[in-house]
Amino acid sequence: MTASPEMAVSSANSTLDFDSVVLLLERIFVRHGTSNEVARTLALNCAGAERDGAHSHGVFRMPGYVSTLKSGWVNGQAVPVVEDVASGFVRVDAGNGFAQPALAAARALLVEKARSAGIAVLAIRNSHHFAALWPDVEPFAYEGLVALSVVNSMTCVVPHGADRPLFGTNPIAFAAPRADGEPIVFDLATSAIAHGDVQIAARKGERLPQGMGVDSLGQPTQDPQAILEGGALLPFGGHKGSALSMMVELLAAALTGGNFSFEFDWKNHPGAKTPWTGQLLIVIDPAKAAGQSFAERSQELVRQMHGVGLKRLPGDRRHHQRAKSSAGGIQLDADTLANLRELAGD
Ligand code: NDP
Ligand code: PYC
Q1: Shared-domain flag, residues 162 and 253
Q2: Closest ligand 1 atom to 151 CA
Q3: Nearest-5° angle of CA 137, CA 143, CA 145?
Q4: Under a CB-based contact definition with an 8 Å cutoff, are residues 83 and 222 in contact?
Q5: Whole-number Å distance between alpha carbons of 197 and 20
Q6: Closest CA to 54 of 128, 131, 113
Q7: Is the CB of 98 within 6 Å of ligand 2?
Q8: Atom from ligand 2 closest to the CA of residue 274
Q9: Which among 89, 104, 283 is positioned nearest to 176, based on CA atoms?
Q10: Cα Dmax for the chain
Q11: What residues does 119 pair with on adjacent strands?
């Protein structure tokens, strides 16, 4: 692979097109031991997050991927094993590799089953997910399907009413087609804030809003460093977010055969950052539903929401940023680009 990533360079920022970012990231993954196929899948995911302004899971994550690969914690060459277990159930053993290649390997079978049975489940286990979740569901909605996915992560969230952390940041992502416009997509951590955003705030020296986390003594804190150094996060919405986080543990780990967020121990792999857990996807074919087309109905819901004054749907910010990046390129500051190039061995 060759790369000539810059479209234009200023002293402070560089503007790269999407394909150039993908190529640069691919080279980093391959240099640190992944197969070409895994590199391509992860690079597209990570560059897509950067393009959409999903910065907590964009190129900021590359040093974490690299240190994890170097630590031997994850198998960057893993070949997922797909099992067709029932009319509506597909299982994948990701082989201690990344979750996205496992999804890619099972995707065609999953869609075929969803279209024939009306609904199908994909249960991924023995997998590492270090990314945003919306890229896993949004493409199904572009194909007219409804998709829901959950993934658990690593112990850093105190269940509501408990004293110590147990749950992961456990995101839930949902995508549904609509007749006139981009699919409806939301993707949210069940913690009050994603762990990635705490790291970003710590790096920038910013304080967090109240109610996000506690320090090592269990006392409320707005200091991101105190959360990262022995503290923990809180679920969003008290007992409600906590119940959803519990549900994610059950669906993403217990139902797939993967680890709960508290079940793996990466102490012997210094540098390991990627949670070794599981992921569940549920895909529904709305063509099987009664009445008017689902996409028309979802369009009607959006129309009504706008009618009562809603200005922004979940996903709108990303799509706005995607359009901006497509027109003007992806901006990377000089330090970030230099770090990425160093990781690529340039
Ligand atoms: P945010 O709180 O930033 O956003 C959550 C959702 O709400 C998004 O769909 C967002 O849309 C939407 N939204 C935000 N603000 C508004 C608003 N004012 N009005 C309407 N909709 C709004 O996300 P999180 O911080 O909770 O999560 C960030 C990312 O971290 C996610 O992609 C998640 O998958 C990832 N993550 C991954 C984990 C893993 O284990 N792999 C663990 C935890 C988190 P929009 O995107 O358009 O802003
Ligand atoms: O931001 O919470 C997070 C996260 C955990 C694993 C990957 N991202």
Answers
A1: yes
A2: 40
A3: 60
A4: no
A5: 25
A6: 131
A7: no
A8: 6
A9: 283
A10: 58
A11: 284
Give the sign of the dihedral formed by CA 204, CA 206, CA 211, CA 214: positive
Q: Per the structure block, which two tokens stand in for 111?
A: 């869609």
Any atom of ligand 2 within 6 Å of the Cβ of 56 = yes
Same domain, 142 and 24: no
Same domain, 178 and 108: yes
pLDDT tens track for 66-89:
999 999 999 999 999 999 999 999
Quote the CA–CA distance of 16 and 32 in Å, as a whole number.
Answer: 23
As a whole number of angstroms, the distance between CA 51 and CA 15 comes to 11
What is the DSSP secondary-structure string of 160-200? Answer: TT-SS--B----EEEEE--SSSSPEEEEE-SBSS-HHHHHH
Residue 263 pLDDT exceeds 90: yes
Residues 220 and 259 in one domain: no
Do residues 48 and 65 touch, judged by C-beta distance below 8 A?
A: no
Q: Of the listed 32, 57, 129, 195, which one is catalytic?
A: 57
139 C-alpha to center of ligand 2: Å?
21
Quick one: 109 exposed, middle or buried, by C-beta within 10 A (0-12, 13-18, 19+)? middle
Arithmetic mean of pLDDT, 295-299: 97
* Ligand 2 mutation pick, 56, 191, 245, max ligand atoms within 8 A of CB: 56
Q: Give pLDDT tens digits for 13-51.
A: 899 999 999 999 999 999 999 999 999 999 999 999 999
Classify the phi-psi angles of 81: left when phi > 0, otherwise alpha if psi is within -120 to 50, otherwise beta.
beta
Would residue 93 show up in a list of annotated catalytic residues for this protein? no
* DSSP line for 315-339: THHHHHHHHHHHHH-EEEEHHHHHH
**Which pLDDT value is given to residue 6?**
37
Please state the domain count of the chain: 3
Q: How far apart are CA 210 and CA 244, in angstroms?
A: 21
Q: Is 57 in the active site?
A: yes
The amino acid present at 199, given as its one-letter code, is Q
Residue 154 CA: which ligand 1 atom is closest?
40
Is residue 245 domain-resident? yes
